[in-house]
Amino acid sequence: MDFSKAKILITGGNSGIGQGIATALAARGAKVIITGRNEARLKDTLDTNPGMFGYALDVTDPLAIRQFASDLSEHHPDLNAVIHNAGIMISEKVLAEQYDLDIVEQTISTNLLAPIRLTAALLPQLRKQSEAAIVTVSSGLAFVPRADTLTYSATKAAIHSWTTSLRHELRNANIAVVELAPPLVATDLTPGQSENPRAMPLVDFVSESVELLCAQPTPAEVLVGRVMPQRTAEATGNFDRVFGMINPA
What we know:
Structural class: alpha/beta
CATH superfamily: NAD(P)-binding Rossmann-like Domain
CATH topology: Rossmann fold
Order of helices and strands: EHEHEHEHEHEHEHH
Helix content: 40-55%
Radius of gyration: 18 Å
Distance between the termini: 44 Å
Number of strands: 7
CATH class: Alpha Beta
Strand order of the largest sheet: 3-2-1-4-5-6-7
Shape: globular
């Protein structure tokens, strides 16, 4: 898959990692479509990236996803790649007097159900293309979780598993299936994260990730160096040590 010549849909492309990857791929020659729920941020991103398309979309709304996919088929019939980037990460207090299950349901709907629903809606169009790609965004926390964001970590573990199975199911199709697993990156995903000295600078993450994504042959996983301790923790027998680093006692 040559991403530099693709027309790519990137959900949550109006901020953070999604915005960075959208801008970098457009600079390589890709035609990029982004979505976002914040219309002001979406407009700002489009204003600074002439030639980029953008649409407001609530990825948690199943009806909106189906209509959006239908509109894409009509207005962008050459769309041949999607990067499922939209996601939320909210801390949970399991021992609170009342465990807030709204956070749990919102996280599962955004991080897990949305990419599954959107993939299902886009598959007919992607299968028509001579080459296509589905890119999911998991996390280093898919492999070693952060305990105070347990549902976020669980959804990313589920996305890893789902992506692995989807890759197998599409093995004889013309669709590459890629998993992008970021480490802690300096974005506004959570309060204070952009200022965290342990976070990988966004520009460095985007540069390394896009270089890996555009490699030939297309990789099954896009893993920057900073995420490897988490990705390999269980295989190398270092799970408990890495877990303790992420979740100090």
